[in-house]
Every structure is written in C-alpha cells, then in structure tokens.
Amino acid sequence: xxxxxxxxxxxxxxxxxxxxxxxxxxxxxxxxxxxxxVTRKRVMEAAQEMGYRRNRAAQALAGHGSHIIEFxxxxxxxxxxxxxxxxxxxxxxSTPYELHIVNPVFSNEKEWGFSKGDWPIDGVIADTPLxxxxxASLKQRGTPVVSVGLFTHTETDHVFVDMTPALLExxxxxxxxxxxxxxVSMWEPHPVTVGYRQDSRYPAxxxxxxxxxxxxxxxxxxxxxxxxxRAVAHQTVRDYIAQNGSPDAFFCFNDERAIGTxxxxxxxxxxxxxxxxxxxxxGIEDSAYHSPAISTIQYPFAxxxxxxxxxLLNRIKNPDVPLQSATLTAQLVQRASSAP
Length: 340
Fold this sequence. Notes:
alpha/beta, Rossmann fold, 3 domains, 4-stranded parallel beta sheet, elongated
C-alpha cells in the first residue's frame, strides 16, 4: 500500500499480525499498562512508516480527545524555542500527542489549532504569560494548562525556573573586577510581574549595583520589526559605546543580545575578556560556539519539558489531581567571555 492511500488501524494490525484492538489502544494513547512497551513501539513505528493519519473528528467523538497540545510562546525566537521544542520532542515522540505552536498575543484561544472547530485541544503548555481572560476561558472549558518558565501563573499547574541565585553570582563576578557594568536589556527598568512572579534579571542587576556602589548603565536594545535580537543589540551597543565609551563589563538580557554585543565589541576593537567581560542569559547552544565562548545563565530546558509534560498528562488523566508545582534553579555556566 502506498503512503498516499488511506492507512487504517486494520492495515497496521495485519502488517504486524496483531489485533486491531491492540493497535487502537496504542494509537489512542490508552495502552499504558495494557500493552507491552515492545508492542507499543512496534505499532508507533509501523504507523509512521505506513503513513497512518488519525481521524481527529472520529477520535474526539469517541471521547478519546484530539491528542493536540497547544504550546504558547511569546515570540518565535529560533535558538531559544528550538531548544525548548527539542526537549519536548524527546518527551512526546513515543506518545500519540502532537505539539502545535501558537502566540497568544496575536490570537484568541478559541482559534488555536483544532479548537477553532468543534474539536477541543487536550491541553496547553504556556511558556509565556496568558491574559487573565484567556486563562479563565480555558479553565471554564476544562482545558488543562501548565504554566512554565520565568513567568508562571501560580493558580494553575506550573514549573517555575528561578534564575535569581545564578544571576546574582554571575553579575557579582562581573562587578568584582569592573568599574562599569552595563545591562543590555530589551526594555526600560520596571517590574514585570505575572501572578506572583517577577522577571529577575533587572532586580538582580540593580541589587548588585547597589551592593558594590556602581552606577547602573542601561543599554536598551528594543525589539525592532524586521531585525533579529542579535542585529538590534549589535547596532545599539555600537551606538552606545560611540557616545559613552565602553563599559568594562556587559550583562545581557539573553544570549541573543550577548551574541550581538560580542559582535559589536569585536567590530570596535574591544577585546573580550581582556578589555570587557560578557555574560549572557538562557543557555542557548550557540553561546558555547563563539570566540570567546560566552558565559551564560543556563535555563534547564530538558527538566522543564519533562516535568511540565508529566504534570499535563497527570491532569489530563485525572482532572481532580491537586495543584502540581515545581521550582527549578538555573545554573551559572562560566566560560572565557567573563574570565577576570
């Protein structure tokens, strides 16, 4: 049978010489405990090889759900979200679930993926703050939500990443050997709070500046349509140095801005770390492969994916399970860019 033809569960069962009921249990996600892991893998592999496509409408009508999970992001940043999605792929690849990406800033949750028709999504993983009315609507519809990352909704299941200890350690190390420490940010200094969570980057920077008696230097590299974060940071830092001279240390809001800052310093003949030291944030893979390698605050991508997926499955299987929460701690990764 060619992949262009419709492949049924019966076809897969015949191909593997097993019962159609077994195939149905595996492809509907109901195989836990009733089908061996070896058989489950055989079914999933055969379904993929034969080009099987589930009938979402029939599946939803039968009460088995759509197996669609919506993953909410704040923007489409390839390096950062590429690592997050890779971590989630590890968790989902052996399951019947699919992850769809949406940006809640630009769409209503009733228009996401399969929820735009009559077929509900099975759950939401939000790596960005959701508007309160959107969160309330999802709750009213009985859609499980797991909030993850730096901004988490504490009234729903959540996996919070605490960056404060690593931020303080890294910025203090910069300040210990510097007279001027600049913060390359994406917005002006103000508290950014969601639920009970506040973005910890500026507060950590400000605290260390007060501790050491150093003056705050904000370099605001706003997002700009048509330009990457690296390009914006590159131009903004060049302009700032041309007008104010160069600080001897830079703490950057994320690794994308750190990479742009490194390029700006190189263009202006400022050596890193001999003339200026550099610290990023997020721990994207790219940061390790520049010259010099960029020190960063490592976001725990794999553990966030593992825990949030575990929480969501628990909630799907048992809607009445008590509130689930976890706190993960980011780690300082010291590389050549911040060497004293």
